[in-house]
Every structure is written in C-alpha cells, then in structure tokens.
Amino acid sequence: MSARMPPAEVAAWQARMPRAFGPTPQGRALRWLGGLAFLAWLIGTLWWFDVSPRRMWNGLEGLLVITRLMIPPSPGEQWVEILQGLAESLAMAFLGTFIAALIAVPLGFLGANNVVTNTLFRFSLRRVFDGFRGVDQLIWALAYVRAVGLGPLAGVLAIATADIAVLAKLYAEAIENAEKKQAEGIAAAGGSPTLIMRFGLLPQVAPVMLGHALYFFESNTRSATILGVVGAGGIGLQIAERIRVRHWDEVAFIIILMVLMVAAIDWLSGRLRRRLIGAR
User: What Å distances lie between residue 13 and 7, 18, 25, 27, 53, CA to CA?
Assistant: First the structure.
C-alpha cells in the first residue's frame, strides 16, 4: 500500500517545479494566443483566396464532368506521338539527371569539410547550393524555354540545373561521413590529395552517390512529364494540347501510360538502389 504525499509537500514541489504539474498560466496563455493566431491565419487565407462552399461545389461538379468525359480512355489517332512523347520525357529525365550527377561529384568534394579546409570557401559554396536549391524546375524550364527555345533541351537543362546543387549537397554530406582510416592510410603512405580522394573516399561514397542519382532519376521521371506544360518538351506538351481542345479521353489514356511508366521506373530504381546500398 503506497503512502500519499502530504498536501504541503505537494505544494512545495509544485512551487519548485511548476511545469511538472501541467502548463503554467503563462504557457496556457501562449497556447491560446498561438491557436487564435493559427485560426486567424486560416480564415484570412480562405477569405483572401475567395474559398467558399459554392465555389468548391461548382468545382467538384466540373471535375465530375471531366472525369465522365475521360471514360473510356482512348489513344486517339496520334498514339504514336504519345509514345514518342513518353520516350522523350524518359530521355529528358535520364539526361538531366546524368548531367547533374556528373557535375555534382566534384562540387560535392569541394563542399566537404574533410576535403576542403578553407571555411570561407566551403561556406560560400554551400550558400550557393542553397540558393540554387530554392529555384524550382518549372522556373528553370521557363527561363530555358526563353533561352534555347521550345523542346526537350530546355527540359534537360532545367532538370540538370535544379538537381546539381541538391546532389552536390548530398554528396558533400556523404563524403564528410566517410570512414577516415582509408584516407589517413593513403596520406601516411605519401599519397597526394587527388589519390586520397580517388582511392580513400570515392570507393566508399560511390554506392551512395549512385543511389542518390537513381532516386533523382526516379523523381525526375515524374517531373519531366510536367515540364512539357511550359513548353519544355516531353509528354506534358501533348497533355497541354489535348486539354486545350478538351480531348479528355486521350488525356486519360496518357495519364494511365504515365502512371505505368513511373511505376516501372520506381520498381527498377528501387531494386537497383537496394542492391547498391544494401538497404532492405
């Protein structure tokens, strides 16, 4: 049978550690203020975007009409062009990811603190990575469409530019976490910095780098299908054209093919990454 603590002792402990007995009045007030601020922000954004039940209902009705027009899916008369568009999107994703992964390798070494000891240089390079990471692929695609014209080249450049900084940052973190003993052994034997990177670090991080590149290829397969909407080639351009003329049955057919293609790439990429990294 357990003895109960006297009320005076409980009051003493409560005065000494008030947070152990629940939120303080100040904490409760802050929680209420936080909740009210969140509620005000939620209502304000709904009012700002003119979100109303009537608009939502009308949108739902329009969506149901589109869904009805999508059934049954049909390839139309230009199914060869649809297949070519899918192949183009896949090629855009592959080429953009390959270019990004290739350029990111030396940048990753330059951004790792166990390779480059100059803090100012490394800090500046990392901030450049952060700056590039803040720009989405669609923004790069719009810029490249203006620079090199409509077509898959703009899509390839958009994918590569958007992924270089992200991959370089991930590669730099992988290099920093590499085992030091191999690099120290080569350095003790009189190896140059290049030999240390080639034989001490690269063999350790190469599977991780390949794994990241495969994951980005998988993700870019989905992204490449959207870039065509802004004129950067691929199947997205054909979707935009068919939506413009309201051929919803052909849009549904393209979406089904896209889902099957992305699922196949996901499956294949996942198996390759597990084989390279050894994840279960």
Answer: 10, 8, 17, 18, 52
- Under a CB-based contact definition with an 8 Å cutoff, are residues 243 and 237 in contact? no
The one-letter amino acid code at 91 reads A
* Digit-coded pLDDT (tens) for 208-258: 888 889 889 888 888 887 887 787 778 888 888 888 888 888 889 888 988
What is the per-residue pLDDT for 8? 80
Give me the sign of the Cα torsion angle 209, 214, 215, 216: positive
Label residue 278 by pLDDT band (50, 70, 90): low
For residue 9, pLDDT over 90 is answered with no
Rounded (10°) angle between helices 202-227 and 235-244? 20
For 75-99, write each residue's pLDDT tens digit.
877 788 888 888 888 899 999 999 9
SS (H, E, C) the chain: CCCCCCHHHHHHHHHHCHHHHCCCHHHHHHHHHHHHHHHHHHHHHHHHCCCCHHHHHHHHHHHHHHHHHCCCCCCCCCHHHHHHHHHHHHHHHHHHHHHHHHHHHHHHHHHCCCCCCCHHHHHHHHHHHHHHHCCCHHHHHHHHHHHHCCCHHHHHHHHHHHHHHHHHHHHHHHHHCCCHHHHHHHHHCCCCHHHHHHHHHHHHHHHHHHHHHHHHHHHHHHHHHHHHHHCCCCHHHHHHHHHHCCCHHHHHHHHHHHHHHHHHHHHHHHHHHHHHHCCC
